[in-house]
Design brief:
The protein is α/β, with parallel strands linked by helices. The protein is built from twelve helices and twelve strands. Strand 4, helix 5 and strand 5 form a beta-alpha-beta unit. It is elongated, with a radius of gyration of 25 Å.
């Protein structure tokens, strides 16, 4: 039997907030990244680490440890610390298409300051995937995606071509048993070999070539003994060639011939639970998301662009409003599958972004009204199409019979 390649990718899956509040989780994040930076700098055998495909963890850490910025940048720019491309790992079905794009745009922009984003569309724990995701990734320059939940029974290998309705496609690496298939590896090399043999036997029908071992899970710290463990396991036997690596390095040599093609959504619960109940629970969160998104996308930004002076472009205010919306797009935040304290924070962030959007929309309309030759009511159609219908206008006037306003239709 030929030696099978076993690629061990150290990582952590970092939910910003979930069964604890953001601030509680951040205390642990700071401890985890403090230890990780020391480990990467001091142990060459621990060569790589995947920081969950999102930049929020970096920003949240550096807000507490700004003095570590250069150390993070050096590790990321060398490729040893994989950061981005997303800002957060969002739920794709419960936020708008614009929010998904802003999430990717923000993540890549932040990662650029640290040497660039990981060139893999890492999507490890979303509760299903939209049909347009291959198109989004391809247009952003990505060739690879990594997915777990939602893959249907028709995909019977650990890799496939994922195609969008417009024909765009990426190669998808399928984490057949999730992003934690090598979490908490044993400290003993013989035990590691036995565990790998059992995994190979269980997954043999799905494996294309090598074994992708994702060494990490939710909020787990790195295992410092990993380099020694891999070296001892390789010296012990010839069936497996273990090595610590990164996702981009592994996927650069992933097989592409003879792969099945799947077109459209990944929305199957065949091998992994999709947690469909998150779609309809906590309607207040979904409503708050829609209000913030609609008022940013269809009012605040268009009005400022159309009616405001270029020098008055409210870029920083819009950035802050979008940051709140993007942070809330995280799958445990927008899905409202968290403790009440988290939901309270999510609602407040949406409310803040919504208030900014309303204020900027009002300013934009005010600029339009002031530009008119004659003062008076102005009706604005923010849609990119002609519309007709009844407009109700509330006009403040002198009190009459106890009424302080008049309604004209």
């Amino acid at each position: 039997m030929p030696t099978r390649n076993v690629a061990v990718v150290p990582h952590t899956h970092w939910d910003r907030e979930w069964y604890e509040s953001f601030e509680t989780f951040r205390l642990k994040l700071v401890d985890t990244l403090d230890a990780l930076v020391e480990l990467l700098e001091s142990d060459p055998s621990y060569g790589w680490f995947l920081l969950d495909g999102q930049m929020a963890a970096v920003d949240d850490y550096l807000e507490i440890r700004p003095e570590a910025t250069d150390r993070i940048r050096e590790l990321a720019s060398s490729g040893r610390l994989s950061v981005g491309p997303w800002y957060v790992l969002m739920d794709e079905f419960l936020v708008s298409g614009e929010t998904i794009l802003r999430n990717l745009e923000l993540g890549m922009a932040r990662a650029a300051g640290f040497g660039g984003a990981m060139d893999v569309g890492y999507l490890p724990d979303m509760f299903g995937h939209i049909a347009q995701m291959p198109q989004i990734l391809a247009e952003a320059g990505f060739s690879h995606a990594v997915v777990w939940r939602g893959v249907p029974s028709q995909v019977d290998r650990s890799g496939f071509w994922w195609e969008a309705p417009d024909g765009s496609r990426v190669r998808a690496e399928y984490l057949t048993t999730g992003y934690s298939n090598a979490a908490t590896l044993p400290d003993d090399a013989a035990a590691l070999v036995q565990r790998t043999a059992a995994y190979e036997k269980d997954q043999s029908s799905l494996l294309l070539d090598g074994i992708l071992y994702m060494n990490g899970s939710d909020h787990l710290a790195p295992q410092p003994h990993l380099g020694r463990l891999v070296a001892e396991a390789n010296a012990l036997q010839d069936d497996y060639d273990f090595h610590v690596t990164s996702l981009p390095r592994y996927l650069a040599h992933a097989p592409t011939e003879g792969l099945v093609t799947w077109r459209g959504e990944l929305r199957s619960g065949f091998r992994a639970n999709l947690l469909m109940g998150v779609t309809s629970n906590r309607v207040d969160v979904k409503r708050a998301a829609a209000l913030a998104e609609v008022n940013l996308e269809r009012r605040a930004e268009p009005y400022a662009a159309l009616f405001g002076a270029p020098e008055d472009w409210p870029g920083r205010l819009l950035d802050l409003a979008w940051l709140g919306v993007v942070r809330n797009a995280a799958h445990d935040s927008i899905c409202a599958c968290s403790v009440d304290a988290v939901v309270d924070s999510v609602l407040e962030r949406f409310a803040e972004s919504h208030r900014v959007a309303l204020g900027l929309a009002e300013r934009g309309l005010g600029a339009l009204a002031r530009s008119m030759a004659k003062p008076g009511p102005v009706v604005v159609n923010p849609a990119a199409r002609a519309r007709s219908g009844i407009v109700e206008l509330v006009v403040m006037g002198e009190p009459t019979d106890g009424q302080s306003e008049q309604v004209l239709s």
